[in-house]
Structures are given as C-alpha cells and as structure tokens.
Amino acid sequence: MAAVFTLLFFLPLAFIYGRHRARVLRVRPGTSLAGRLAALLPMPALLAVCAAIAVIGEREDRVAEQAALVGRQSEPSMLSTGFGVADAALRLARWLGELELVLFMVAIPFILGALIAALLLVLEAQGRIALLMPPADGDDAAQDPAGKEGGT
C-alpha cells in the first residue's frame, strides 16, 4: 500500500522530469534512439549501485553485531578491499546510497523520470506521439498563453 502512495505522490514530478529529459535528448543532433536511451542510464545506474552498496554494507554490519553478541568473529567485509582508493570510493558510494535510501524522495523522481523519458522517446520514435521542442532560455508560457501548441 505504501508503494502505491509513493508512486502516486512522486509520479507528477517524475513525469515533468521525464518529459523534459525526453525533449532535451530528442533535439541532440546525430543521435539514434539507442544513443538517447543510453544517455538516460547514468543517473539511475549510479543510484541503484549506491543503494545496493549501502544495503550490502548495512547487512554486513548487522551480521557482525549478531556475531559479536554470540562471541564469534564475523566474516571479512565484502566492501573492504585493502586498497585505499577503492575503499574510499566504496565508502563514498555507501554514504551516498544511505543518504539516497533515507531521502528516497530525491532518488525516486530521477528513476521514474528516466523510465518515463525512455517510454516517451520510444513512442516518439514509433511515430505515436510528437515531442515538442524544449523551451529556450527566457522562453516562457507568456508567449503561448492559450496553450495552442498542444502535444507532449
């Protein structure tokens, strides 16, 4: 039930973000549909990897606490490589993932927006919808007060 309310709450913001991303990617010169869809991947992929690292780290912390209560030694951490730079990167990714999981309101619109943008780009490539050009800087609704352009 909470997932339904979360989706309903964040869907308008995600749609606005997704429509904007689809419009911006559509006007890139010389890109195919596959290139446009690939351009949508970095943010959701980063958020997913960081969240997975945070979940793995939290699980390892809980297992270590339980082992300490029983008097056993826990397994070495999967997130500890022994190489300083890699450990720092994993620590940073875990921190970002924990922050993302706590402030899920930041991550959900990006991920849903990327999915909506991908859907809009595919529909536009099939000719089912026509995406409008993104508004130029300084261009606002005052130039089209009646909303006569229509479209998505």
In short:
The protein is mainly α. Helix content is 67%, strand content 0%. The two termini are 30 Å apart.
Describe it for me?
The chain is mainly α and 152 residues long. It has 5 helices and no strands. The radius of gyration is 21 Å and the shape is elongated. The model has no long low-confidence stretch (mean pLDDT 84).
Which properties best describe this structure?
elongated, 152 residues, mainly alpha, 0% strand, single chain
**Percent range of helical residues:** 55-70%
The number of domains is 1
Which strand-content bin applies to the residues?
under 5%
Termini distance?
A: 30 Å
Mean pLDDT: 84
Q: Provide the structure class.
A: mainly alpha
Low-confidence stretches: none
Determine Rg (CA atoms, Å). 21 Å
- Write down the secondary-structure element order: HHHHH
Largest sheet geometry: none
Tally of helical segments: 5
- Count of strand segments: 0
Shape: elongated
List the helices and strands and how they pair.
Layout: H1 2-26, H2 33-39, H3 42-70, H4 84-102, H5 104-125
